[in-house]
Amino acid sequence: MTITGRLEGRYALITGASRGIGRAIAVRFAREGATVAINFSGSHDAAKETLRQAQETTGGSGKLHMIVQADVGDEHAIARMFDEVLSAWGHLDILVNNAGIQSEAESHVYPVDEYRRILDIDLTGPLICSQVAIRHYLSRPGGGTILNCSSVHEIVPKPGFIAYSISKGGLRNLTRTLALEYADRGIRVNAVAPGAIATDINAAWKDDQEARANVESHIPMGRAGTPEEMAAVFAFLASDDASYVTGQTLYACGGLTLFGEFKENWSS
Ligand code: NAD
Predict the structure, then answer these.
(1) Among 44, 201, 253, residue to substitute to test ligand 1 (most atoms within 8 Å of Cβ)
(2) Which one of 23, 59, 144, 164 is CB 3.0 to 4.6 Å from 137, fit for a cystine?
(3) Where do the domains of the chain lie, and which CATH numbers do they carry?
(4) Tens digit of pLDDT for each residue in 35-64?
(5) From the CA of 4, how far away is ligand 1's center (Å)?
């Protein structure tokens, strides 16, 4: 497939880009011409593999792709990450808040420490990263853009995953509030809401034929999505093709948010 250089000359920082959707975004952005900073918190080797793929897709054109370690649940680590990226490039145009985790327990016994940890990574981290990015965007002409990786669970409740549900619901208003606040200053803020995507966060079913068939039976399009399908949506929203789009969540979910139970009439 030929991909146009819609992000040529842009500099993008993607959190949680050592695997999954974040890796696919980094590689897709590089293919579209961007220089990418690949944030990771765990495996250095996995981040290096994302870097290798980004460099390969760029065809060794000398882009200053980089990897940068930081736990986005830690505000000091976030500050160091931006210092590292901005001192390497002196410039940032695109922030993608992609990193995220989830964990399961019934809400009445959900450990408060765990709740705080998930909110720190999935919601407060994106806010703090956005604050730093916005201060940079406001400091020079040209504006910039922020993309949040939300979820269908920003509007669909997810029992047993109370912290995740709350953080993704919060991301919706983070997106909309920042979009409105900075709309007249050249800053666009949008979100992508994936449905069920075959990544490690879904280790419970992604490689188990029976469990996966069960998941896919609930999806109107009849299949899980791929990280690359998510990356394509991020690339659109990051590019000037979406120059008049702000404050929106684009649901990339195979129809999961279409109330599939209503496909056949069961009422009158
Ligand atoms: P994944 O588990 O493969 O990737 C998550 C990434 O976040 C990993 O690279 C991980 O190292 C990183 N990460 C976790 N904690 C971090 C921290 N404290 N600091 C920095 N990085 C950290 O899963 P994924 O599906 O690629 O998830 C990416 C995003 O997509 C998440 O925000 C997730 O909530 C969202 N999402 C995924 C699905 C899905 O079905 N896969 C659906 C909806 C939303």
Answers:
(1) 201
(2) 144
(3) 11-263 (3.40.50.720)
(4) 999 999 999 999 999 999 999 998 877 789
(5) 27
